[in-house]
Amino acid sequence: MKTFGLIVPAVMGTRFEHKVGELLTGNAEPAQIIRPLLEAWHAVRLRAAELGRKLLADARRSEACQLLMTIPGVGVVTATSFITAIEDPTNFKHSRSVGAWVGLTTRRYQSGEIDYDGHISRRGDSHLRGLLYEAATVLLTRSRSECDLCKWGLQLRERLGFKRAAVAVARKLAVIMHAMLSTGEPFRGAHVTD
To answer: Where are the extended beta strands (E) located within 78-157?
Structure first.
């Protein structure tokens, strides 16, 4: 629309649609191009909302999702994605293997006399890793829960910085979530060790 000299203000949702419609009134040439795009955008928004409602309904029916959502910071999308990625908890012999599988363990470089721990390995499902990081961020910044995991993460944050603490909490979340799926026990803010 900038090509035609029409500047859309920074608004979202239906207000965006209305503002674009107002700008297109009296401008026949850009309207021929923009109106079909606006209709497609509207259809995508309706479909995304419908899929969101279906995902929420499916998560409410799933015992595993309900179990994982007892963790502060873990919502429908994170719980569903974790269950979908893991598939069967018996695929992993130890819960701590899940952190490595998702790519949240440190990468090590060794050659001759050189030996250092680098950044995280970033192996595995990047979408799940991002969701776990986001859940850890919520746990560290917005959660009012007094769980041991929150306290441990906040102590790490003071010592190592926010990003490293969030990665460590995300890895710990993956381990805890796998253990919860294996045992069927809800989150109780279990004791966390370094």
So the answer is: 106-111, 114-120
Q: Considering its fold, how many domains does the chain have in total?
A: 2
* Same domain? 51 vs 84: no
- The answer to whether the beta carbons of residues 187 and 149 sit under 8 Å apart is no
Are 133 and 46 contained in the same domain? Answer: no
CA distance 155 to 5: 53
- The two three-digit tokens of residue 158, written as one number: 């003071």
- Lookup result for tokens 């999308």: 77
Cβ 175 vs Cβ 99: under 8 Å: yes
Same domain, 107 and 150: yes
**Which residue range forms the structural domain that includes residue 47?**
2-58
24, 40, 58: which is the final residue of a domain? 58
Q: Using CA atoms, how far apart are residues 40 and 68, in angstroms rounded to an integer?
A: 36
- Tell me, yes or no, if the pTM score tops 0.85: no
Q: For 105-150, what is each residue's pLDDT tens digit?
A: 776 666 777 666 667 767 778 899 999 999 999 999 987 777 888 8
How many Cβ atoms are within 10 Å of 41's Cβ, its own excluded? 14
Strand extents, DSSP E, the chain: 106-111, 114-120
40-71 pLDDT, tens per residue? 988 999 999 999 999 999 999 999 999 999 99
CB 152 within 8 A of CB 122: no
